[in-house]
Specification:
The protein is mainly β. It is built from one helix and 47 strands. It is elongated. The relative contact order is 0.06.
Length: about 500
């Protein structure tokens, strides 16, 4: 039976099923003499689950720790459609004997009926929940100190994992899904703190991506308001030889990636799958904010990275061999240790295309935009962006071996970069832009000289009154309707750079 996979962002599905009857459990209860009522509770969840097999049953645990020493027999099989929840204001935990799993939800004839765990802490075992061929919601559930918080087996059957307020704290991996069957993963308000990997999506691991022939995975992943904090690996890591995703693009909305090694890592060749990252923050990730490597994707597919903040990362955005077109717009990429953006094509495949529009790329330690072609064509369009005060070049291009690139700079401000604003870029590739050091020449509507920022020393890269960049841009079709701040672009001819002045009113 296939699981529902539509409506990933409708988190009302996380609500408890209709209650057919409650079964109560308490450390003060009695499995033999109890009846499962509030007045005569059972002592163990093991006993309660023997009674609560019908969809709609609700097991309520009183405050306390439920462990093997107290009579629990792990792993506990979670029936389809059953809710298990803690109650009271104190701690309610399941504590294992060390190995194995605490809960198991595996294939049943009623696989699509959502089971719910709520208000629980899972600790003291290898795995919190083993999931295969079932639909489970984890609401306000914390996995603490486990090797794997949730292990999803996608070897042969589709599975669905949803959650509102799920936490994985100091786990080896918060959620590990492996295999190529359909996965629905929809999390709202979750957090992954000081784990190895927060979420690890793995398919055909160990296979050589250059020779592997597969049909792709079927992931339907939507993460909203999810925090990845201090993970020694990646916040989200997808790896394995399966390169394409048959589901919708991976969606990240209003997420925070802070203090990890990498925020989002799509290992080669998995960046052939489209992603959407919107209104998220990538802060102080020691390696990369986003690192994505492809191999041979569909040039007609599109990934979108929009309205995000990248700050204090090793490299803000690192895209390699991404045959899927990347649309990168209205992002702030600042204060990277190295390059703000690194864009490259190393493989003998069709063109890798990246379109940058209305971005602020400033105060990075290396180049603002570093472009490297080392085999086939790299096509980069830079539209109405502000690239300023970076520690190396503003926009740098490098070719190796037989590599070549198309590079177009339109409507931009490139100013104050340490070794020069443009490096190995011809003036004929620059249009309607201000290049402060004159590297764009004065043909094609270009300007040179100071851009007239309001206060660059204080990181204010908006345009001051009297700036030569006002109303000097061309209305390029890919520009879009909004500037970096979300203001309308076309109030008369657009201004150069990422920020329109007309909408600021001063």
């Amino acid at each position: 039976m296939r699981l529902l996979s539509a409506g990933l962002c409708v988190f009302t599905l996380l609500a408890a099923p209709a209650v057919a009857g409650q079964v109560h459990v308490s450390n003060a209860g009695d499995d033999d003499a109890g009846t499962g009522t509030a007045e005569a509770p059972y002592r163990t969840l093991t006993r309660a689950l023997a009674d609560a097999q019908e969809p709609g049953a609700w097991i309520v645990l009183a405050v306390g720790a439920y462990s093997a020493a107290g009579g629990e027999r792990f792993p506990l099989d979670l029936p389809a459609g059953v809710r298990v929840s803690g109650s009271g204001s104190g701690s309610c935990s399941l504590e294992g004997p060390g190995g194995g799993a605490l809960f198991r939800a595996t294939s049943s004839d009623d696989a699509a009926n959502l089971a719910v765990l709520a208000g629980l802490t899972l600790r003291g075992a290898k795995i919190g929940l083993e999931l295969r061929g079932r639909a489970v919601a984890l609401n306000d559930v914390t996995c603490s100190g486990l090797e794997i918080g949730v292990r999803v087996d996608l070897a042969s059957e589709p599975s669905s994992l949803r959650g509102d307020g799920f936490r994985a704290v100091e786990c080896g991996t918060g959620i590990h899904a492996a295999g190529t069957s359909e996965l629905v993963l929809a999390l709202d308000g979750a957090s992954f703190e000081r784990c190895g990997h927060g979420i690890l999506l793995e398919a055909a691991a160990g296979e050589n991506p250059d020779t592997f022939e597969g049909t792709g995975v079927d992931h339907r992943v939507a993460l909203r308001r999810v925090t990845f904090l201090g993970c020694s690996g990646a916040g989200v890591h997808r790896r394995g030889a399966e390169s394409e995703n048959r589901g919708a693009p991976y969606r990240f909305e209003e997420c925070l990636f802070q203090g990890n090694d990498v925020g989002i890592h799509f290992e080669r060749p998995t960046a052939d799958s489209p992603i959407e990252v919107r209104r998220s923050r990538f802060l102080s990730n020691s390696g990369f904010g986003i690192m994505a490597a492809g191999l041979d994707g569909d040039p007609g597919a599109r990934s979108t990275i929009a309205d995000n903040e990248f700050r204090w990362n090793g490299v803000g955005l690192h895209l390699v061999n991404t045959q899927v077109t990347y649309d990168v717009r209205r992002n702030r990429v600042t204060d990277s240790v190295g390059n703000g953006l690194f864009l490259a094509n190393f493989v003998n495949r069709p063109t890798a295309t990246v379109q940058l529009a209305s971005n602020l790329i400033a105060d990075n330690g290396g180049s603002g935009v570093y472009c490297l072609a080392d085999s086939q064509l790299l096509d980069v369009q830079v539209l109405h962006s502000t690239i300023a005060n970076n520690g190396y070049a503003g926009v740098l291009r490098k070719h190796r071996h037989s590599g070549k690139s198309n590079l177009s700079i339109r409507g931009c401000i490139v100013a104050g970069n340490r070794i020069g604003d443009l490096h190995k870029i011809e003036a004929s590739e620059v249009f309607n832009s201000l290049i402060e050091d004159g590297g764009g020449g004065t043909e094609n509507g270009n300007l040179e000289g100071p851009p007239g920022f309001r206060d660059a020393a204080l990181r204010d890269y908006s345009l001051d009154r009297g700036s030569p960049c006002l109303n000097r841009g061309a209305e390029d079709a890919p520009l879009g309707e909004l500037d970096l701040l979300g203001n309308p672009r076309r109030v008369g001819p657009p201004d150069l750079g990422a920020i329109e002045r007309a909408a600021q009113g001063s």
